[in-house]
Amino acid sequence: MATTAPCAVPPAAAPPQSPTAAPAAPAGSALAAVAPAPPAAPAPPPAAPLSAALSGPFPGGRVVRLHPVVLASIVDSFERRNEGAARVIGTLLGTVDKHSVEVTNCFSVPHNESEDEVAVDMEFAKNMYELHKKVSPSEIILGWYATGHDITEHSVLIHEYYSREAHNPIHLTVDTSLQNSRMSIKAYVSAPMGVPGKTMGVMFTPLTVKYVYYDTERIGVDLIMKTCFSPNRVIGLSSDLQQVGSASARIQDTLTMVLQYAEDVLSGKVAADNTVGRFLMDLINQVPKISPEDFETMLNSNINDLLMVTYLANLTQSQIALNEKLLSL
Q1: Could you read off the pLDDT of 12-50 as tens digits, one per residue?
Q2: Residue 222 is assigned to a structural domain of this protein
């Protein structure tokens, strides 16, 4: 792993006036002085640049869609940080469309910082992104993350580096100190601030963060959530039968809630919502139209096939055990 020389950061003339604003770095103290800047990452598709997705206005506002695997990776890198390190930083990867930015992956980047210095291993970040492109060529650099609840002067320098990798990059903060007994997660984009001809500063504007997941990620999220109700925060994996039972119970609860909503609308207790009505109609149309007799026949046929496979498997297991006994005589 390449090692970079630290770059001295001159002290700011005055502290920022808000926790989301910080002074810009003076000329000559940009992060490029830490190590030679890596070649620029491939530009995002012209149909959906990052700047367009974050400049608005568009339906839904400026939204960052965050996957749980990103949060898990950030927390894991914080737990494995070097001794004495106050925080960890890393690169955010994902995709961009016309309405939002979706962060699907990330990787940590080694760095060292003190009160007056900051050094980032840019060569490591470049190599990691090149390797990642071979696996997921559609994912581009969206910005960077840092653990902690505030934005420091060093964050401005690091953000300046990522501004060369992605136009208008995102800065994601994850409060691993759990202030207020929760993990605060915020996203920002930077904007210049100051008087023309004078020292310019940078203001970080917050974005809306929404949590999304794939179906495969939902399984892991549901399992992690179960540990909240366990005294020792440990829970074992459920069997296939237990998972089927849990899924059936959730479906039953959902159907009960939907039926109650429909009854309240018909009785006038709740105002009708056209969006919910269209969604329920689409859901009903997806249910196959089959008579109860045909459904029972199909179910019994599948059960008989399953019982036959189970019987043959047990018979094969018995034959193997008998063969081993005969060979041992």
Answers
A1: 433 343 334 444 444 333 333 333 344 444 444 444 445
A2: no
Q: What is the pLDDT of residues 292-324, one digit of tens each?
A: 888 888 888 888 888 999 999 999 999 999 999
Query: What's the domain range around 297?
Result: 293-329
Q: State the pTM of this model.
A: 0.62
Q: Provide the terminal-to-terminal Cα distance of the chain, rounded to the nearest Å.
A: 61
Alpha-carbon distance of 140 to 50, in angstroms, equals 10
Strands lying side by side in the sheet with 117-120: 7-8, 117-120, 111-113
Same domain (yes/no): 121, 164:
yes
The domain total for the chain is: 3
Residue ending a domain, choose from 182, 216, 250: 216
| Alpha-carbon gap, residue 84 to 119, rounded angstroms | 15
Residues 69 and 115 in one domain: yes
The 3-state secondary structure of 259-273 reads: HHHHHHHHHCCCCCC
Structure tokens at 254: 């959902």
The one-letter code for the residue type at 105 is N
Distances in Å between the Cα of 64 and the Cα atoms of 93, 170, 189, 208 are 12, 9, 11, 6
Going by C-alpha positions, the residue among 23, 35, 50 that lies closest to residue 161 is 35
Whether residue 18 lies inside any domain: the answer is yes
Domain co-membership, 152 together with 301: no
- My answer on whether 172 and 93 are in the same domain is yes
State both tokens at 180: 């207020």
